[in-house]
Amino acid sequence: MNKPRPFEGKTYTLGSIEKGEHCCEAVPHFSIRDLSVSYHGEVVLSDVSLDVYKGCITALIGPSGCGKSSFLSVLNRLSDLIPGEHVSGNITFEGQDILTNNIDVRALRTNIGMIFQKPNPFPLSIYKNLLLPLKEHGVRDKKIQAEKIQQALESVGLWDEVKGRLDSSALALSGGQQQRLCIARALILEPSVLLMDEPCSALDPISSGIVEDMIQKLAGKYTIIIVTHNLAQARRIANYAAFFWMQESVGQLIEFGRCQPLFDSPQNSLTAAYVSGAKG
Amino acid sequence: MIDKVFSLCMWAAATVVLCMFSWLIADVLIQGIPALSWEFLSSEPLRSGREGGVLPIIVSTALILVVALGVAVPLGLGGAIWLAEFANKESRLFSVIRMTLDMLAGVPSIVFGLFGYAFFCGFLQLGFSILSGGLTLACMILPILIRTTEAGLAMVPNDWRKAGAALGMRKTTLIIQVLIPYSAPAITAGLLLSIGRATAETAALIFTSGYVDRMPESLSDSGRALSVHIYDLSMNVVGGDKAAYGSALVLIIIVVQINFSANLLSEVWLEKKVARR
After folding, report:
1. Distance of CA B149 to CAs A208, B193, B194, B203, Å?
2. Is residue B169 less than 8 Å (CB to CB) from chain A?
3. Residue pLDDT, tens place only, A187-211
4. Which residues pair with residue A112 across a beta bridge?
């Protein structure tokens, strides 16, 4: 086998998708350059450079522990919560360098929603789960609150299922419903980006299907970056795919490109081995 | 076979504990109930407590407890929240503070008594007073309160902290709206443990709040706590046994009452704040 060759980032900008959904604009929403992440001096992700396009779904694929989730949590600075983590490189988001210290992290996180692997609604009622972030960001008018909450629940297809029991606990919902509630909770702040860290992996196949359909409906309106271990899912929903792999125990971006070609005719032998199921 | 022997041993141990506990309660009930009367609860002790009642002593106990909790609860909650949510858990300071707290929680109460005597009564010139006693008790229960509250907060799943941060929420909002209400049962348990220790305390109080059995007129008066009263009656006063049992029963009733209402309060508050299921 050929010696694996890391992605040499000369062609970050890939342009719009000619075939397929209308959602993609050839405008980079995130421009990531030479991003490296280390914990306590141990490098876990090194030299990642790529552009994430506005309104597109970008899937991050690769085996566990190759730095996909670390990559994701740098994008909304949630990595700040992890002691001992050091991030270097450049990330430009909507014309702003988001890795500098003087950025308003709360505003950034309001604009970049995040969905986690395990649904994590607060131990509050369904209504309060959505009310809490709204109030936190200054929406005081009760009527507007109610409207926004209904809108958010409708946009994730949950309204008809829960409208009669908004005051009951969110923890009593099924896993799939909880995950959709979490997505509604992120959407209610009107972000432009959604980061999703394996949003379907803790769900049963039927719930997973419902959430997947929903993610597809959100494309175009939101820039979505989704980490997934489910290659079939990535293939079904993503416009772009980025393949990460561990090399000498450091996560690296091996190949980045439009989803279809990356799966059908990968440029790198590692990608080929991974997407064909021979490795990983 | 081994399973059977093992479960038998466990049953035996449980039975022994239960029997001892029942015996203790029964003893206090049988000997204490005859002493208990409206007059006992509403009058001042006479002839060193052989006769009369315990009203000033109940009042002193309540005042000491109010001072102790009034100081310890805000400090304890604040300290625990800092330790659990704000402190850098990998720093040296953090582990030193935790270790110190664990050690302080295990220090015999008489040491706290001597400290209180030297610091509050002497250095701060508060003298033998309810204030000195309450503050000494506050020092004594603070480590327990901090560690139980911190443990309660540590039990809250990290998922919600991440969810809150990812929604751009302030840490304070998350702590007040989600973390504290969710860990309220654990915090209440810690509080009750502290109240239990405080009401049972004798050694630390003899040195600080003294044992004057008159009705206290202010916090700077000396006041005798129930536990001190029981100790004095059973050890120093010949013929004080009946009153000692009566006072012990009163103390038990007070502690049970506090337990009951605290649990009820935390449940009611919890119902309003969080919806577990």
Report:
1. 38, 11, 11, 26
2. yes
3. 999 999 999 999 888 888 888 888 8
4. A193
- Which residue ranges make up each domain of chain A? 28-122+193-275
A274 vs A16, more confident? A274
Of the candidates B159, B169, B275, which has its C-beta nearest A120's C-beta?
Answer: B159
**What are A86's strand-pairing partners?**
A38
Axis crossing angle, helix B55-81 with helix B184-200, rounded to the nearest 10: 140
Residues facing residue A257 across a β-bridge: A241
Q: What is each CA distance from A40 to A83, A166, B99, B227, in whole angstroms?
A: 8, 44, 24, 53
Q: How far apart are CA B196 and CA A127, in angstroms?
A: 39
Residues 6 or more apart in contact with residue B31 via CB below 8 angstroms: B241, B242, B245
Tens digit of each residue's pLDDT (9 = 90 or more) over B94-133: 999 999 999 998 888 889 989 999 998 889 888 888 889 9
Structure tokens at A271: 């990608």
pLDDT band at A280 (very low <50, low <70, confident <90, very high): low
Residues of chain B found within 8 Å of residue A78, distances taken between Cβ atoms: 162, 165-166
* Closest chain B C-alpha to A114 CA, distance in angstroms: 6
Nearby residues of A13 by Cβ (< 8 Å), 6 or more positions away: A26, A28, A51
Chain A environment of B159 (Cβ under 8 Å): 116, 118, 120
Q: Which amino acid is at B204?
A: A
Instruction: Return the axis-axis angle of helices B130-155 and B55-81, rounded to nearest 10°.
Output: 40
Q: Which residues of B touch A84 (CB under 8 A)?
A: 90
Q: In CATH, what class is A28-122+193-275?
A: alpha beta
Number of A/B CB contacts below 8 angstroms equals: 85
- Which residues in chain A are closer than 8 Å to B87, comparing Cβ atoms? none
Task: Provide the pLDDT for residue B175.
Answer: 92
Q: Which residue of A has its CA nearest to B271?
A: A124
Query: pTM for this structure?
Result: 0.80
Rounded to the nearest angstrom, the minimum Cα separation between B157 and chain A is 9
- Residue A241 pairs in a beta bridge with A59, A257
ipTM: 0.83
Write the pLDDT tens digit of every residue in A90-120: 899 988 898 888 889 999 999 999 999 999 9
d(CA B277, CA A121): 12
Which residue in B has a C-alpha nearest to residue A168's C-alpha?
A: B275
Q: Tell me how crowded residue B79 is: count the other CB atoms within 10 A of its CB.
A: 21
B276 touches chain A (CB under 8 A): yes
The CATH number that domain B36-273 falls under is: 1.10.3720.10
* Torsion B155-B160-B165-B170 (CA) sign: negative
Interface residues on A facing B, Cβ-Cβ cutoff 8 A: 76, 78, 81, 83-84, 105-110, 113-114, 116, 118, 120-125, 128, 132-133, 136-137, 167-172, 182, 185-186, 189
Task: Tell me which residues of chain B have a pLDDT lower than 50.
Answer: none
List the domain boundaries for chain B: 36-273
H or E stretch at A240: strand A240-247
